[in-house]
Amino acid sequence: DPSVHRGGAGTVTRAILQLLGQDPLGAQIEQVLPASTQGRFQRARQLASVVGSLVSPLPSKALLTYSRRFLSDVQGLLDKQKFDLVLINGSDLLWLLPHLPPGIPKILLAHNIEHQLFLSQINGLYAGSRLARGALMRDWRRLRDYEMAGMRQVENIIFLSSQDAEFALAENPDTNVLIVPPMFGYQPPERLGSRNTEAGLQIGFMGNFGWWPNREGLRWFLREVFPHTSIDTRLHLFGDKSREAAPRNPRIVNHGFVPKIEAIWPICDFMICPIHTGGGVNVKFAEAVYNRVPVLATSFGARGLSLQSDPGIVLLDGAAEWVSFLCSPAARALRSRRVAESISDTLAMQSHAEPVQSFVLDVMQRESSH
Fold this sequence. Notes:
The structure is a single chain. This protein folds into 2 domains: about 190 residues, no CATH class; about 140 residues, Rossmann fold, CATH 3.40.50.2000. About 40% of the residues lie in helices and about 10% in strands. The protein is built from 14 helices and 10 strands. The strands form 2 sheets. A 6-stranded parallel β-sheet has the order 7-6-5-8-9-10, covered by helices on one side. The longest helix has 25 residues. The chain is globular and about 65 Å long. About 35% of the residues are buried.
């Protein structure tokens, strides 16, 4: 449900829906929501979907979103009312395609390439288990075939990541593609972080720590980097499940979920994004850049975003490079920088209003002319 989802997918979906509702398009949007895949029994549902995929035509990621109630809700709404377009929010819902009326225009909002994300998860979390890896690799091959077939069928795709769009076009050059990075509609506040270059560093990491790439990135940072930094360097964690993600440490402050993001910036000198696995784009990295807050990230953490080089964005990959930077005067200098306004503007919602609305209108017009 994009109205309450706290992760990057919710942020992206809310922005897209807001743009579609603006003039001149002024779309009226009816949302049909599958059962939530989050919550207390998330792990149990994921395991059940993996087991169920052994006897289902659907791979486990698609099976996780499938329910007769959800399908009935979609079909009931389509029978009751005429729609100009169906927006499919994520590749795990491509199983809906055979159930949609023929000829209705369709657009897929691809938050990532699901089978690439799944392979990254298998390689990162199950490398040491031959039995689990074998079963999951069979599921991965089915997911890959399911996803690519669905993308060929839907034809029109909005990607967040330029790399994902390049992959899709290499697989099917006829795909109609629009690249829309994470975008934000509020005014970036004036940054209030410390300018005292002599005080200890206050580093921030924000994200949903129930999301495995964030957990893995944090583990890497805590294991390979943080122990080798100065004793007066402090790490601040912001986001769901941050309290469960890190051990008790006097140098780690767990803030949990912070409802107003502008409350984060005065606390931190700069943000970090130590992500090495996953897919799509890192929405929290993008949001820090939009707010012109300096960031230390891996190149993977910045993947898929076409950003110009900027002194306020430092990209380093190896643990030794991170330690060397954080222990150097360059880290103290980073706290006084701001990302260029021209880069922030590329992530502003209104920068993408015309391209998104034109893309949607073009899809509807092309489909109606067939």
